[in-house]
Amino acid sequence: MYFDTHSHVFDEAMLDDLEASGVSEIIIVGYDPLTSKKACDLAEKNHRRCMRILPAVGIHPLYVGDDPEGDISTLRSLIRDYPVTAVGEFGLDYYDEKVRGATSDRDRQRRYFKAQMELCGECTLPALIHSRKAAQETYDTLAAYPEVKGVMHSFIYSAEMARRFCDLGWYIGIGTMVCSPEAKKLPAVVRDVPADMLLAETDREVNETRGGVRLLSVAEVAKRIAEVRGEKEDIMLPILRDNALRLFGQIRPV
Fold first, then answer.
1. pTM for the structure as a whole
2. pLDDT of res. 105
3. Which residues of 126-156 are buried (b: 16+ CB within 10 A; e: fewer)?
């Protein structure tokens, strides 16, 4: 059984395939108020499935608006009305700013980042953190909220930076990039991070292919993590799922 700790699967038709592939738990992650509500509704509609669908609500740094108080109030209402598993994804994204023309958005990203960290503390929920080209600032912000814990989603930084996040009590999310020959830093991260601080994820949005390229499953990510660490799959795979169950407060079936 596999726990996909980060996906954006809003297509209900995909759920049967994911369940048949061995996914036992999946977090459906919102990235703005609308998709956060969609994640909650999808989880509620499918609550009788064997595969547990767990919603996360949040505002991605590239989707921040001009009304953080109003948007946070919307997230707070969703947390009140639905069994929300986590807040996210949110954080900082300074990648290709000149191309995107987003330099002026840094202050807004920071306001939303801190507001959602405060929401995590208020509601006692873990956080799903998005961070690109902002390692040190992300680290400093997380360190300022020691009561909040969560996962560094789709980790892209160095093994040294991963250890620093782990020292704060944060998990490291490993995505499909670990299966790519172009992943230069990730193998060292996977080997260096303690086994009980690793999570497997797909960041998946659609089924099977995108642009003619087959999308990898959480099973393939988990198996690659075991391979990189030199561990047997029957040892490493349950550890990855147990890590997710522990962080997200789920009760492991007897």
1. 0.93
2. 86
3. bbbbbbbebbebbbebbeeeeebbbbbbbbb
